[in-house]
Specification:
Blueprint (H helix, E strand, L loop, with lengths): L15 H7 L8 E3 L5 E3 L10 H10 L13 H11 L4 H4 L5 H4 L4 H4 L5 H15 L8 H18 L9 H4 L17 H16 L1
Antiparallel strand pairs: 1-2
């Protein structure tokens, strides 16, 4: 059962028509089934529900940029890149791990989802605590994420990111540093790369 502090994550009824059509599950059924067969209670995640293979598999299957890019580019491949840009850090590898359960949502969309950041924070804290990583992570992880974002935009998107509001993304604007060029790994190869990097970091 979710704690009282987490019940506020369940959206209030704001549009009876939409709520009647879509509906919201009771809190005690607010879980997703993982590839290993676990039930992940996203409002109140427990350590035994979190599995690195579930995370790697989901992130390998999850395409960034809502799939609107030149070829399949997974969150898993991106995560390994951010890890390598930060000295093979575990925090870099897991910085998007919540998306294994909540999906990758484009930042401009995410900004308009009123409770998403709260929910993401709950899931991220549970995952990084499980694996002994630091959360919230420091600015070096965020900067590496933005560096990799800038590099990916140049290779994956028609605009190359040239018309993005970079000051909204990073206060100092678009980084001049280059990240790691996308390799367009298949879901399985991206999953395996993610797991190898995890073993390398934690062994």
């Amino acid at each position: 059962m979710a704690s009282m502090a987490l019940t506020k994550l369940v959206p209030a009824v704001t549009n009876p028509m939409v709520d009647r059509l879509v509906g919201l599950p009771p809190i005690d059924t607010a879980w997703v089934e993982t590839v290993s067969g676990k039930k992940f209670h996203f409002l109140d995640p427990q350590p035994e529900e979190i599995d690195i293979i579930d995370i790697a598999t989901a992130l390998g299957n999850n395409c960034r940029y809502t799939g609107q890019c030149r070829g399949f580019y997974s969150v898993a491949e991106h995560s390994v890149a951010v890890s390598e840009l930060t000295g093979n850090s575990l925090e870099g590898l897991l910085h998007d791990a919540s998306e294994a359960y909540l999906q990758d949502i484009a930042s401009p969309v995410k900004a308009h989802l009123s409770n998403y950041k709260e929910l993401e924070d709950v899931v991220m804290r549970a995952i990084l605590n499980k694996f002994g990583a630091i959360y919230p992570y420091g600015p070096a992880i965020k900067y590496a994420d933005v560096v990799q974002l800038s590099t990916e935009a140049r290779h994956l998107l028609p605009s190359k990111g040239n018309d993005w509001n970079w000051e909204w993304i990073w206060p100092e604007g678009r980084p001049k540093r280059f990240g790691i060029i996308p390799r367009f790994l298949s879901p399985k190869k991206a999953r395996d790369l993610f797991l190898r990097k995890y073993e390398e970091i934690t062994s």
